[in-house]
Amino acid sequence: MAEDARSIVLEHAADGARLREEFFRDNADRIVDVARRIAVCMARGGKLLIAGNGGSAADAQHVAGEFVNRFLMERPPLPAIALTTDTSVLTAIGNDYGFDQVFEKQVQALGLAGDMLLAISTSGNSANLIRALKAAREKGVVTIGLSGRSGGEMASLCDHLILVPHEHTPLIQEVHLAVEHLLCQLVDHYLFEAVVELTSYLDED
Ligand SMILES: O=C(CO)[C@@H](O)[C@H](O)[C@H](O)[C@H](O)COP(=O)(O)O
Ligand SMILES: [Zn+2]
User: Fold this and answer.
1) How close is the Cα of 196 to the center of ligand 2, in Å?
2) Would you write out the chain's pLDDT as a tens digit for each of its 205 residues?
3) Within a 10 A sphere around the Cβ of 6, how many other Cβ atoms?
4) Whose CA is nearest to atom 18 of ligand 1?
5) Is 53 a pocket residue for ligand 1 (Cβ < 6 Å)?
6) Atom of ligand 1 lying closest to residue 173 CA
């Protein structure tokens, strides 16, 4: 392999490792807190809606799959819906109203007070997510943002924001995926391994 191509690989790995280490050192408590809130939402009968564009759309589906099927442990299916998957809904809204409304209208249709919306965006500025977050707030759906850079417009619309402070989209996405897997693992932990601890939070918030 050419030396310059090899250095692209090694630089990506080194930058990613540094970002991961710093990010998790600074955000471990925040990730645990968000996971606990998702667990409480589901324990109360709420569901998690998930949205994102491009690679983050793939993440939305990935996360919904872990919750609805299972993650690391055997347990009952958990309620999560990716808003990125129904091509009839997406094309009808996109065609009739515009791409900016593809998530907003689904939040208006599916979101109930006490549900949560997880919006995944590296820029924090995708217009369809901004509109979805505003619609969520109007419906009493709690908003969680998984963002990058400095959070973008999304930051002020999220009740809980997990921010990967980096400029490089792929590296942000790679950390997002790790966070998403941890949220799945921690929600399972709270719902099925630490039930006594979780019930103490049910009357809060
Ligand atoms: O996966 C990638 C880049 O790695 C792309 O598909 C990327 O997700 C798309 O450009 C998205 O539209 C970016 O949206 P966002 O993260 O700024 O909300
Ligand atoms: Zn990508």
Assistant:
1) 40
2) 678 999 999 999 999 999 999 999 999 999 999 999 999 999 999 999 999 999 999 999 999 999 999 999 999 999 999 999 999 999 999 999 999 999 999 999 999 999 999 999 999 999 999 999 999 999 999 999 999 999 999 999 999 999 999 999 999 999 999 999 999 999 999 999 987 677 777 777 6
3) 10
4) 121
5) yes
6) 4
Report residue 131 as tokens. Answer: 């509109």
Residue type, 8: I
Which H helix or E strand runs over 162? strand 160-164
CATH number of the domain at 29-199, please? 3.40.50.10490
Pocket of ligand 1 contains residue 122 by CB under 6 Å: yes
Is this complex's ipTM strictly greater than 0.90?
Answer: yes
Known binding residues for Zn(2+) are 62, 66, 173, 181
Work out which ligand 1 atom sits closest to the CA atom of 170: 4
The residue whose C-alpha atom lies closest to atom 7 belonging to ligand 1 is 54
Give the position, in ligand 1's atom list, of the atom nearest the Cα of 129. Answer: 18
What is the C-alpha to C-alpha distance for residues 63 and 163, in angstroms, rounded to an integer?
Answer: 18
User: In the chain, where are the structural domains located?
Assistant: 29-199
**Segments of 16-154 assigned E as strands:** 48-52, 80-82, 116-120, 142-148
